[in-house]
Design brief:
alpha/beta; TIM Barrel; Immunoglobulin-like; six-stranded antiparallel beta sheet; binds alpha-D-galactopyranose; glycosidase
Length: about 425
């Protein structure tokens, strides 16, 4: 349906737009978003605590500010669909539904900014949002960008329901330009690729990286391990196309963290967190921060895993191996020659003893120190050729942060030995293991 002249015109239009280079999101964003947990609950009569209303966002801002989240980097509070009134105002501006946002968005933005946080909002490139609220058609892009900036919005999620690929090809770059033109630094999250199947040639990732800070590539996450697993699988199966697209200021977005909700066991929650860190994914929770199990909090607030996710080099990791045993190995290179390894079990029986060596995982010869991210234990004096064994729970992970050691360390302390013995079973290094 795209004829060549139209395509050329569109490409020219796109190349004329100013690249979105406002220095934002050099590392993946962290924060909280309403959608997966609170959906389009507009029933403030019967469900006042959970409906999409200013109270919900104030509550979550209080929690982020008071429960240690902000200090860890969780800073964006993002409103999703269903915040709008069914009608634009008399000047054609979007407005919040007055019964649910009586103070208006600018006041909510002040509340959030006063707590050292940032506000995100949702709009849709099309005639309607996915839930049927007013959309942003091409003629409304400028006014909507201006409205958001005037309210003090810091982040826009721009969805793509109810538009076709030709309109999207105009609308997404135009919004980028319109946001730039406001003069306010606003993070721009594009759902565009998710509406085009997420892969080249339909999706042009270098263009996306120039105009958007992050983008949804694939289907919505749901509150289940199946959904998380499906997302991990799709991103890994397509890593040759997706992984090179990511970098500082340009991120793939496999969607929200659902840790703390109903669908994941503790092991599965660790798996989501581990894989999102490997993928350099946005760490945007969608859960009820007022009511969170300690196990979920511990996973989401794990400093080492957050540091891995937020590594300044910003290189997305990759799946290295899929074993017949249904063990998969993931790897991400990090600053200071460090790296992260994740061993994921897709088994459904019992903890699996996986034997390997760093050499088998493409590591250079030498000695390494490993930190187990979820148990905070340390392994020293690990040689690339050392065959080691990790015990991986069904649908769980073992995650390591690895640093090469310049010099071989002297003997382990007793404490190290104890930790090692309790966490890992070491086999004698097999001589002659070479780097793959
Ligand atoms: C789409 C998006 C979701 C959410 C809903 C809201 O499905 O992908 O993340 O924003 O719309 O209606």
């Amino acid at each position: 349906f795209l004829d060549k002249t139209l395509l050329t015109q569109l490409l020219t239009l796109i190349s004329l737009t100013v690249a979105l280079d406002n220095g934002l999101l050099k590392i993946p964003p962290m924060g909280w978003m309403a959608w997966e947990r609170f959906r389009c609950d507009v029933d403030c009569q019967d469900d006042p605590e959970n409906c999409i209303s200013e109270g919900l966002f104030r509550d979550m801002a209080d929690r982020l500010a008071e429960d240690g989240w902000r200090e860890l980097g969780y800073e964006y509070i993002i409103i999703d669909d269903c915040w709008m009134s069914r009608l634009r105002d008399e000047q054609e501006k979007l407005q919040p539904e007055p019964s649910r946002f009586p103070g208006g968005i600018a006041k909510l933005a002040r509340y959030i900014h006063d707590r050292g946080l940032k506000l995100g909002i949702y709009a849709d490139m099309g005639t309607h949002t996915c839930m049927g609220f007013p959309g942003t058609t091409l003629d409304k892009i400028e006014i909507d960008a201006q409205t958001f900036a005037s309210w003090g919005v810091d982040y826009l999620k721009f969805d793509g329901c109810y538009s076709n690929p030709v309109e999207q090809m105009q609308g997404y770059p135009l919004m980028s330009k319109a946001l730039n033109a406001t003069g306010r630094p606003i993070v721009y999250s594009c759902s565009w690729p998710a509406y085009l199947g997420g892969l080249p040639p339909n999706v042009n990732y270098s263009l996306l990286g120039d105009i958007c800070h992050l983008w949804r590539n694939y289907y919505d996450i749901q509150d289940s391990w199946d959904s998380v697993q499906g997302i991990i699988e799709w991103f890994s199966d397509n890593q040759d196309d997706l992984q090179p697209a990511a970098g500082p200021g340009r991120w793939n977005d496999p969607d929200m963290l659902i840790i703390g909700n109903f669908g994941l066991s503790v092991d599965q929650a660790r798996s989501q967190m581990a894989l999102w860190a490997i993928m350099a994914a946005p760490l945007i929770m969608s859960n009820d921060l007022r009511n969170l199990a300690n196990s979920a909090r511990a996973i989401l607030q794990n400093k080492m895993i957050i540091a891995i996710n937020q590594d300044p080099m910003g290189i997305q990791g990759r799946r290295l191996l899929q074993e017949k045993s249904q063990i998969e190995v993931y790897w991400r290179p990090l600053s200071h020659s460090a790296s992260a390894l994740v061993f994921l079990s897709r088994r459904t029986d019992m903890p699996y003893l996986y034997h390997t060596s760093l050499a088998k995982l493409n590591y250079d010869a030498g000695s390494y120190e490993a930190y187990e991210v979820f148990t905070s234990s340390t392994v020293t004096g690990l040689n690339a050729t050392t065959v080691f064994t990790v015990s991986i729970n069904p649908s769980g992970v073992v995650m390591w942060y690895l640093i090469p050691q310049q010099k071989p360390r002297q003997s382990d302390t007793l404490y190290d030995q104890h930790k090692k013995a309790s966490q890992f079973m070491f086999h004698k290094a097999k001589p002659g293991h070479s780097t793959l």
